[in-house]
Amino acid sequence: MQKLADAGLRVFARRGYHEARVDDIVRAARTSHGTFYLYFANKEDLLRTLAVECAAAIDEVADAVPSVTPDRAGEEALAEFLRSFLGVYARYGVVIRAWMERQVTDRKVDRLGVRAFTHIAESLGRELAAAEAAHDAATVAALMAMLERTSYAMTSRDLGFDPDAALTTLTRVIHRGFFGGAQPRTPR
C-alpha cells in the first residue's frame, strides 16, 4: 500500500491529479492493477488516503509550533518548525496544491485540508499572541500565505537557489516581520 501511495504522489506531481491514471500509478509502483484495487477503489480513493496522511502530518507540525521569542533561540526554534513544515510540504505538496487550487471535489477531503491549515494557523496565531506581536486575522492570513507559497516555490520547482539559504531567509523574514525579532546592526 505504501508503495502505491508513494507512486501516487510522484505521478500526481508529474502529471497533475486530473491527468494521472491508475495505469500510470501502477506502472510507477511496479505492481499490478489487482494490487491497486485491493487497497483503493480508484484514484480518488488514493487521494483521500494521501489527504488523511497529509492532514495528520500537518496536525503534528501544528502541535509542535514552538514558542518564538525575539532572540536567537526563538529564531532557531522557528527555523526548526519551518524545516518540519517544509518536509511535510515536500512530501505532500501535490495534495496541498490540490486543496489550495480547489482541485478536490470530495468535500470530506477538502475539509481535511481546511481543518489542517486552520489548525496550523491557530497555532501560529497563539504564538504570535504569546510573543505580544500582531495576531489579528489579517496578520495570520499573511503569515500563512507567505508560508504556503514559499513552501510551494521551494519544493515544487527547481529554482536554482540553495534550499538552506532560502530557509534562512524565510526564517529571518518571519521572525523579524511577524515575531519582532531583533534586527542585526549594520555598520555605518
Structural class, from secondary structure content? mainly alpha
- β-strand amount: under 5%
Number of strands: 0
- Helix content, binned percent: over 70%
Global outline: elongated
What is the H/E order?
HHHHHHHH
Low-confidence stretches: none
Number of helices in the DSSP assignment: 8
Q: How widely separated are the two ends?
A: 60 Å
Q: Summarize model confidence as the mean pLDDT.
A: 90
Radius of gyration (CA) equals: 19 Å
Largest sheet: none
Describe this structure in words.
With 188 residues, the chain is an all-alpha fold. Helix content is 74%, strand content 0%. The longest helix has 29 residues, at 72-100. The N and C termini lie far apart (60 Å). The model has no long low-confidence stretch (mean pLDDT 90).
Short description:
This protein is mainly α. It is built from 8 helices and no strands.
Question: Which terms summarize this structure?
Answer:
about 0% strand; about 190 residues; mainly alpha; 8 helices
Write the SSE topology.
Elements: H1 2-15, H2 22-29, H3 33-39, H4 43-63, H5 72-100, H6 107-130, H7 137-156, H8 163-179
